Amino acid sequence: MAEIRLRNLAHSYSRSPSGPADYAIREMDHVWEQGGAYALLGPSGCGKSTLLNIISGLLSPSHGEVQFDGKVVNALPPEQRNIAQVFQFPVVYDTMTVFDNLAFPLRNQGMNEAKVLAKVNEIAEVLELHPLLRKRASNLTADEKQKVSMGRGLVRDDVSAILFDEPLTVIDPHLKWKLRRKLKQIHEQFNITMVYVTHDQLEASTFADKIAVMYGGQIVQFGTPRELFERPSHTFVGYFIGSPGMNLIEVLPYGGGVRFNETMLPLSPALNRRVAEMPGAKLKVGIRPEFIHVWDGPNEDAFCADVVHVEDLGTYKILSLKLDGQLLKVRLQEDQPVPQRQAYLSFPAQWLMLYADDILVETKPMEVQP
Amino acid sequence: MKVHNNKAWWLVLPVFLLVAFSAIVPMMTVVNYSVQDIFDHSTRYFVGVDWYKQVLQDTRLHDSLLRQFIFSACVLLIEIPLGIAIALCMPTKGRMASLVLIVLAIPLLIPWNVVGTIWQIFGRADIGLLGWSLNSLGISYNYASNTSDAWVTVLIMDVWHWTSLVALLCYSGLRAIPDVYYQAARIDRASDWAVFRHIQLPKLKSVLLIGVMLRFMDSFMIYTEPFVLTGGGPGNATTFLSQTLTQMAIGQFDLGPAAAFSLVYFLIILLVSWLFYTAMTHNDKTR
Q1: pLDDT tens digits, one per residue of A96-152
Q2: Radius of gyration over every alpha carbon of chain A, rounded to an integer in angstroms
Q3: Measuring CA to CA, which residue among A169, A97, A108, A107 is closest to residue A136?
Q4: Which residues cross the membrane (chain B) (predicted)?
Q5: Where are the alpha helices (DSSP H) in B95-200?
Q6: Do B186 and A79 touch (CB under 8 A)?
């Protein structure tokens, strides 16, 4: 069990990287604390698997350090890092039985047979592999094989961390949910650091206490599912998390706030001060479809928007609106009246995020200073 | 209700004709020879299974059959492990990989009688590099007069000629194993031997099956190389089955016994190949 710290870590697959585009991982500092359940969330090709392989030692980073409990492990191969990793596609040793597969990592450590038997039985119990223990691994179905792969990772409870690289890709949807719960249980039971790579936000938020969102080779935000939802610190997080994603509107500053076309959005004095400090920055405002307030009728604070489309998704509706030429999505609860033709909107100040060059403009540090 | 449409037979016809011309007709010709005693095209007698009886009691054939089995067994025992070992050592990428592939392919591209000639000269004590060197070192070596020298030379020649085939087959099999298996094995702290035993060998099974069958059949029918190298000698020491058969059919013009023996020969190859196949695919079927 260990705390995993990444210091000034960067990785490029090209031997002589010439620019940021050549880096699969851009320089980052990050800490995975001992015993945490983490998800690494991001679209395909954002560097998630690269980062995972660097942690496990299958890849050696081109820059920076990987530390386990403060000890630099860059030079250690995976077999000496004492780490477990479960891959996207099941890997089983075909010629062995399920039991021998699960026992394999333990026997390689030189554990005595009595202890091996106890550990394998314990994990088989948790993963419901008991009826299969005597079967040969080559004759299993894809999801049974993946359970065996996971079992081989989970059976060693002395590991520094268990890394999962989209382990449920090949699993049936109804089993996915069950296995995710299982992993969570195992995490609570053994208190091992787990890092779970996925591109599915639902999977990430059901498994993890904290999610690291990766984009373009960088961790753009690290926080609880709620923080990611309520205060995305990067426009990508806003867009990637939530269904549908955050509404993002390009805006220009004016005296007391920002505007797009003829629509003025006043900002707090603190935000206005920050905007004034960043001339030339590309500004965007973002607001979640859930947080746009829809009034029942005209109101002096409300903007009037044209209804373009209503999508009924059962428990809620997605309203597509056009406000001053800008397309917006609004999420309506089932009991809310659905506006016809015209809707009256307002953007509550606490949910209206301002982004400069895609990074959230924070006001807190400014307000603390006298 | 099932509708029977016999027009589909027309689609099978081309294959049927092809197989008939390539296999069935020639084989039936042999069957025809094997049950008759033929003097010329108008004088022939039906002799039933007499030729078969004669052939099965012929000690000359027994001897060469035994030699043949020993030879094929040696070939498989040397070439299969050696081929796997070479494949495991081959570089996987870069210019070296291409170079090694080309070097390995060279013996396979040389015509068989040329292979025999190369080794015949190579092994000669007066002008051959191998023979001359060995004799200069004080090791008496003469494949033309010493039985074990002849055997070793024929074996080494076959190993030189055909191990590349096994190596190339295994190399392609090894390249087809996804990286993730090796990664998982490293994570599980598997030893190199365990990686070979539990990942590489099982994944090589299907190419090895092809390798074993090809090498068995080819070595069991070997003719040209030993014929050129030793002419079957000294004495009959390196006279293998196909050479005995050829002597019988063409040398003595005993077409009847030769035909009967060809069929027995064919059945032996079929039987042994079937045994190999069954043994190597046994696990897949029973579980």
Answers
A1: 899 999 999 999 888 889 999 998 998 888 888 889 888 888 888 888 888 899 889
A2: 25
A3: A97
A4: 69-90, 97-122, 150-171, 206-224, 258-277
A5: 95-109, 112-122, 129-136, 147-175, 179-187, 192-195
A6: yes
Choose, out of B188, B195, B208, B287, the residue to mutate when testing the contact with A (most A CBs < 10 Å): B188
| Span(s) in chain A for CATH 2.40.50.140 | 237-368
Task: Provide the pLDDT for residue B287.
Answer: 43
The answer to whether residue B128 is domain-embedded is yes
> Chain A residue with minimal CA distance to B181?
A91
Look at residues A30, A1, A16, A17 and name the one whose alpha carbon lies nearest to residue A220. A30
CATH code for the domain defined by A237-368: 2.40.50.140
Q: ipTM score of the complex?
A: 0.79
Cross-strand bridge partners of residue A250: A284
B169 pLDDT exceeds 50?
yes
**Residue B37, in any domain of the structure:** no
Task: Please state, in angstroms and rounded to a whole number, the distance separating the CA atoms of residues B195 and B189.
Answer: 10
Contact B183 A87 (CB under 8 A): yes
Judge whether residue A365 has pLDDT over 70: no
Compute CA distances B212 → A295, B73, B164, B183, B224, whole Å.
80, 11, 13, 30, 21
| Total-model pTM | 0.79
pLDDT reading at B4 higher than 60: yes
CATH class as words, domain A4-234: alpha beta
